[in-house]
Model the fold of this input.
Amino acid sequence: MHLKDDVTMTPMPALPPLVDTMIHRGTLLSLDEGERARVLLEEGPADPIECDVLHAADAPPSLAPGDLLLVWQPAPGERGVVLGRVGPTNGPTSADPAGPPTELVLEATHSLTLRVGDGSITIREDGKVLIKGKDLVSHATRTNRIKGGAVQIN
Done:
């Protein structure tokens, strides 16, 4: 029995040829919450075009105004899609002179563990803090205070 004897073949709808699609380079003018971008194309209309942003990972891409982008526009006048950034970002980076944030909050409902190699710090929901490591070192330029209901050494 041949497959084509039992199955009715439905023709695929005609797709536009790939040469009709347009991939452009452009500059990001503005970004609305990582979803909609206004891009000025290097070649094409003098006015910016509206684009959706392709999310190829869980987090949206890191884009900033002034970034050089790769944009797909199915046809002139249609909404484009930002495929990604070309080269480095114009936005803040970890080496930014503005520095790290003034406060960073990590929150968990049961426990939070920071682990590197054989060392770890665990904070549990019952208030217990566990610090584990091969060696523990404490340095203070002023008072180094140990305070608790009871302090056990060895």
The first helix runs from residue 3 to 6.
